[in-house]
Design brief:
The structure holds 2 protein chains of 2 kinds. By secondary structure, chain A is α/β, with parallel strands linked by helices. Chain A contains 7 helices and 10 strands. Chain A is globular and about 50 Å long. Chain B is built from 15 helices and 12 strands. In chain B, strands 2-3-8-5-7-6 form a 6-stranded mixed beta barrel, surrounded by 4 helices. The chains are: A alpha/beta, B alpha+beta. At the A-B interface, helix 2 and helix 3 of A face helix 1, helix 12 and helix 15 of B.
Chain lengths: 225, 408
């Protein structure tokens, strides 16, 4: 069990009234440290559900998830948020920045949840914002930034706590193709230089072209190994 | 913590119009409570002073035995050597003066009809001094100061008793009672005046004579009680304790222990104030929780994001409680300022309140400045707002992240 993330027979079924809709059907997947992997598939194939379960913001109906070799207990409310805080980074399709906070404060937010000192927080936020080339925009609020800039702030926020893996759900879906390339270049650079593990979902061919490994999903099952 | 308070402050002012409306509700609540509380405080102050000046004085002194059992004969358990005691009392700080009273009962007759009475022997000049003005006598005059220069004993009758006896000023009546030694005694008295006690039942039976007349009728030099009048009502407890220490065998009763009407009014006003407080509490709770629920509804996706990046449910709940505290503190604080300004304006305006029952004179509408009331109202508003936030905040902290993130 040496993989960074591993799933065993992972299944998720949604109930819509009396109908059960399977979203994931017994997935076995392993993500190694340093990977730059895309999960692809058509709408409804289970990409987002898989990312949500791996990101501990949804729970599986059955099966197991291991993170750094330890099985995740999805009913452990008190420990799940600490795992999310310390080991996971999340990038959302719609950026999901806190509108009343500046770029700097948005990136600093996860650090406020830790016991890091003010000086260390400042150093980490500065580094994260410089990594995404937005230091000069640190005092801007999200509504004063372009879509690409917002997503870069979101990336900085996801990276600032040095997570073991960054999960990105269609990170370029809401930005134009030029900006999407910039974002993907940035993610690749962070992967290569900072050894950050990325797992992202997409059905965009441009995004897929950046991935080193593509996991194809169809009807909740992996169709390629 | 400072950063989270800063975040909460930004969230509070995110929707300014809504925050202002909620804040106005809090300002209104705080102002209403302070104005009502200040007016009630003024009323209590006025009523306590009128109770003290009306008849009770600040402290009344009795022998210990008189408070423990009923007298079998008049003045059996009365105070001896009242004059010596008065000199000792007068030497104490904050004592303005003291005076003796004799309480007795008997029959009063006009020759045709005899009626039971409740009599009081008083020192007329000091009774007038206690009231601050001459006691209200409807017809005739109040009792003379002493009997030293008078050729005959005088009585003033409560109006019901005078009516019952068909007595008029200047007529003679006969007082009959049992003396302190158990013998029967009678005395002719001239009606000096007819007065009103303000209590209809008491008006049917009450009369007053001078202290020497009462003592002569009862054939005793004792008095029933000594009434002590102070320069400051707040010193009542302090002086009462000193008196009990100074005068062995004597017990002091404070004015508020005897003021039945005052205590009833205090209970009534406190109940009204409490009811007002409950209404405002409910308004604040409904208004604040509604605002917070709307705020949470609008920020559902953001809450999902915060939880997704590692915010603990407790931390999230605390963030919302900070918001409640900020709104409460701002609304409550502003309410204090508005209340202070309005109190000043009301006090300056010279508004007159209608005469209360049993009185022919109105009284000014005054709102007292009571610092503890301001502190209490501020805390009430702030704490209530926080309490009102708990449920919405709890609901927010328990949102399913995946559902919250999908909220549109």
């Amino acid at each position: 069990m040496n993989s960074l993330v591993q799933t065993e027979s992972l299944a998720k079924t949604y109930k819509l009234g009396n109908t059960e809709v399977p979203a994931l059907r017994g997935l076995d997947l392993a993500i190694e440290e340093g990977e730059f992997t895309s999960i692809s598939g058509p709408s409804g194939s289970g990409k987002t559900t898989l990312l949500n379960i791996l990101g501990l913001i949804d729970s599986p109906t059955s099966g197991r998830v291991y993170l750094e070799g330890a099985q995740v207990k999805y009913n452990g409310l008190t420990t799940l948020h600490r795992i999310r805080l310390e080991k996971l980074g999340f990038i959302f399709q719609t950026f999901n920045l806190i509108p009343v906070l500046t770029a700097y404060e948005n990136v600093e937010y996860p650090l406020l949840l830790t016991k890091k000192s003010s000086a260390i927080r400042k150093e980490l936020v500065e580094r994260a914002l410089k990594d995404v080339k937005l230091w000069e925009f640190r005092k801007h609020k999200p509504n004063e930034l372009s879509g690409g800039q917002r997503q870069r702030v979101a990336i900085a926020r996801a990276l600032v706590n040095s997570p073991r893996i960054v999960l990105a759900d269609e990170p370029t879906a809401n930005i134009d193709s030029g900006t999407a390339s910039e974002i993907l270049d940035l993610m690749r650079t962070l992967n290569e230089e900072e050894k950050v593990t990325f797992l992202f979902s997409t059905h965009d061919q441009l995004v897929l072209s950046y991935a080193r490994r593509v996991v194809k999903l169809h009807d909740g099952a992996i169709v390629n190994a | 913590m400072f950063k989270f308070i800063k975040l909460a402050t930004k969230n509070v002012f995110r929707n300014r119009r809504r925050t202002i409306i909620t804040g106005l509700v809090l300002v209104f609540g705080a102002t209403a409570l302070i104005l009502a509380g200040g007016f009630i405080a003024f009323s209590f102050r006025g009523l306590s002073e009128s109770t003290i000046r009306g008849q009770l004085g600040h402290i009344q002194l009795f022998t210990e035995e008189a408070l423990q059992r009923e007298e079998e004969r008049p003045l059996e358990l009365g105070i001896d050597s009242a004059d010596a005691m008065k000199r000792k009392i007068l030497a104490l700080d904050h004592v303005r003066f003291s005076m003796a009273r004799v309480e007795f009962m008997g029959l009063i007759s006009n020759g045709d009809k005899s009626v039971a009475f409740l009599g009081r022997g008083v020192e007329p000049e000091k009774e007038t001094k206690l009231a601050g003005f001459a006691l209200a006598v409807d017809t005739g005059k109040f009792l003379g100061e002493t009997q030293a220069n008078a050729t005959e004993s005088e009585v003033i009758l409560a109006k019901g008793l005078a009516k019952s006896l068909k007595a008029k000023v200047g007529e003679y009546l006969t007082l009959m009672t049992t003396t302190s030694k158990g013998a029967l005694n009678a005395m002719d008295v001239k009606v000096a005046g007819i007065y009103s006690t303000g209590i209809p039942e008491y008006d049917e039976r009450a009369l007053m004579v001078s202290l020497p007349t009462a003592q002569q009728l009862l054939n005793s030099a004792k008095v029933s009680k000594l009434v002590v009048v102070l320069d400051e009502t707040d010193k009542t407890e302090e002086v009462a304790q000193k008196l009990e220490h100074l005068l062995p065998g004597i017990k002091a009763k404070r004015w508020f222990e005897m003021a039945t009407f005052y205590n009833a009014v205090v209970r009534l006003y406190n109940a009204i104030f409490g009811f007002l407080g409950v209404i405002i509490f409910v308004i604040v709770v409904l208004s604040s929780s509604n605002t917070m629920m709307m705020s949470i509804f609008e920020r559902t996706k953001e809450i999902g994001t915060q939880l997704a990046v590692g915010t603990s449910p407790l931390r999230l709940m605390m963030n919302f409680l900070y918001e409640g505290l900020i709104v409460g503190a701002l609304g409550g604080g502003l309410g204090l300022v508005v209340a202070l300004i309005l109190s000043g304006l009301v006090n300056q305006a010279g508004i007159m309140m209608p005469a209360p029952p049993g009185s022919t004179r109105g009284y000014p509408l005054i709102v007292d400045y009571v610092p503890t009331l301001y502190v209490a109202v501020f805390l009430l508003i702030a704490v209530t707002t926080v309490l009102a936030t708990i449920f919405p905040a709890y609901k927010a902290s328990r949102l399913k992240i995946v559902d919250a993130l999908g909220h549109v």
